[in-house]
Amino acid sequence: MLLPDILLVHGAWHGSWCWELVIEELRSLGRTAHTVDLPSSGSPAGLHEDAEAIRHAIAAIDRPVAVVGHSYGGFPVTEATAGSAFVTRLVYLAAWMLEAGTSISEAAGMPPFETKLIAPPADALAEFYGDVDPEIAERAVAMLRPQSARVVTDRLRAAGWLTIPSTYLVCDNDKTMPPAVQEELAARASVVHHLPTSHSPFLSTPAPLAELLHQITKDQARVRS
Questions:
Q1: pTM score, whole prediction
Q2: What 3-state class would DSSP assign to 124?
Q3: Which of 15, 28, 164, 169 is the most buried (most CB within 10 A)?
């Protein structure tokens, strides 16, 4: 069976570095994984620049690929994958899975920010990495970068999940995106799984996450667990 490659897309304030442990585990399973650094992490770039970076990454892979978006990363993944001939499945990991024409600001009921860049949360250690090994979590906090405020108000131009099979992974102990909100977003997905983790299972449980991604990206069945 020909397995697709896997493209891993990080969330706000993060970078491709956050996937390193998962990539190691995927390689041990015989899978090929790729990452992309979103321009909005560390600069004033917005949603559409992020989507373009993802489209370039998909084109560079130039073969069937499953795309995984974490948290904010699900937002540009949604736009970037619309109409793609290469993408076999979308995986939303505690991520924004919204409809075309919508912004995160509208979906979350939050006002726009008055600054161009948003500093990482002061309580990032507890908010993002509550169940992560303390040493790994401290290193992760040190790697966080300011996030563009534009991504909150930019609107999606298209939604890839309308035509591409999708899976939503709800993080049941998430302190960043409430599980109830994730459940609402997950109603748009073809398949839903629950993880007993906080917001960053790529650092807290990389092996189980890699195994689940391995299975999901092999299986196109419409199942809810």
A1: 0.96
A2: helix
A3: 169
